[in-house]
Amino acid sequence: xxxxxxxxxxxxxxxxxxxxxxxxxxxxxxxxxxxxxxxxxxxxxxxxxxxxxxxxxxxxxxxxxxxxxxxxxxxxxxxxxxxxxxxxxxxxxxxxxxxxxxxxxxxxxxxxxxxxxxxxxxxxxxxxxxxxxxxxxxxxxxxxxxxxxxxxxxxxxxxxxxxxxxxxxxxxxxxxxxxxxxxxxxxxxxxxxxxxxxxxxxxxxxxxxxxxxxxxxxxxxxxxxxxxxxxxxxxxxxxxxxxxxxxxxxxxxxxxxxxxxxxxxxxxxxxxxxxxxxxxxxxxxxxxxxxxxxxxxxxxxxxxxx
Amino acid sequence: xxxxxxxxxxxxxxxxxxxxxxxxxxxxxxxxxxxxxxxxxxxxxxxxxxxxxxxxxxxxxxxxxxxxxxxxxxxxxxxxxxxxxxxxxxxxxxxxxxxxxxxxxxxxxxxxxxxxxxxxxxxxxxxxxxxxxxxxxxxxxxxxxxxxxxxxxxxxxxxxxxxxxxxxxxxxxxxxxxxxxxxxxxxxxxxxxxxxxxxxxxxxxxxxxxxxxxxxxxxxxxxxxxxxxxxxxxxxxxxxxxxxxxxxxxxxxxxxxxxxxxxxxxxxxxxxxxxxxxxxxxxxxxxxxxxxxxxxxxxxxxxxxxxxxxxxxxxxxxx
Lengths: 306, 319
Description:
With 306 residues, chain A is mainly α. Helix content of chain A is 65%, strand content 0%.
């Protein structure tokens, strides 16, 4: 069962609703007044909540436009509009390198994750075999494993045996071997695809691989999109991974890791830090606007019984 | 007889083919699970009984690391207490607030899409960016929040610079990023059968009674799911407390040369994952880091088991 999240159409009792109601009777008038008050209360609450969510962004934007000296004071409003802060961040040593590294990490990580997780999820959702339940439970356990639990041996493995310290490969390569969360999410999605479709393909003589590529992938596009988005953002936001493997090599830093370095010898340059913060948030927000549906679908799927 | 025999042989071949096919499809995960889960976990158990600084060969030292972490290491119980605080207060606050926002968004009739986007966006902010932003917003001396509180004549907490207020400040940050819970609750609320509301209304139930006797029973599995996953996420809480403490303590910049002893102010932002980093990568005490890792593993798995119980489990793993 999946949900499509849609705003419900306005109830007919909403203000500006049906004209020419028999609104002459006092009872109907009271009901209409009650509905109006309800509408006002709900929307006032909504605006108050929206302020809580939006105000931080407003303060971040305002501070990102202040000059260096003013950004250290308690001023709320910039005395001059320093749009060049953004140019300074963009041209800061390393910023473009971090940008490239982040795109590589997120791009390759997402590609590897989708390609390696899809067949696994398909097998868990649609094949009948002994140990299927246990396998699914192990996937869920791995999904809930804090990355720090296994970091010591993993670091020793990548740094000492593979000599890959100072690069992002120790983060990217494991994604070619199935990512637990992605497998789980895809499984939840594939469970909703009726078996009749698959049986029809088999009657036509498709093998499992062709069924997966020809039938399942087109049907599972929303689930695949959700997994790709989540993985992309996971990589984009990852701080711990780059901290472990890339901290001693600034050429391998990512945006999330480098973001803290907009400081001089004594204090944080809040104006540059906030400008950089917005630049790092921007792609995420832009992608969200283009892929809202896939996102919401994905979040919902994780919280629903498969 | 021969026919039967032939039949079962064919069946056996078919079975074997199906088994091989299943193995082929599962193979990426079988490799991944062995190399990136089972092996490092066993290795972590092994190192927890070893003295190893990453350079000299490891030597066996029995339970020394274990007794050190549980009885001498000054940060372990502080981190456990913080985790408990966060589990009780932060998770509860997130679930209650998320449910409230979910209810609100299902009741908003005008501009629902715009409101939903506003409520959801902060969840997308990368944790480092969001935490740096809050370290700035909640800066006790110069931040806009205390500026506004002062103008209103209200007390101005020390937030990330005060041990009493650092975890509440982290909780505010967690409430700002409530988008994931909002969406889950919104979907659950829209799923409640309308007939039940209508029936309750006919019985003369007011809005509180409708919420208590119709809404809550219908969404309780999702609420429970949100609580358990919230607890598991709290076990992994790393980036936000680290960046918040680091920024507030005035440690400057990123990179290998930046030594920040996690927990500022006064151990109040310590969490178990930070201890693993601190022990393993700053003090080169691999053994003790692995002891803390195993404690974290046990706690996470205990709560994950709750998600998967056969009866009343929240994730169905049956056919």
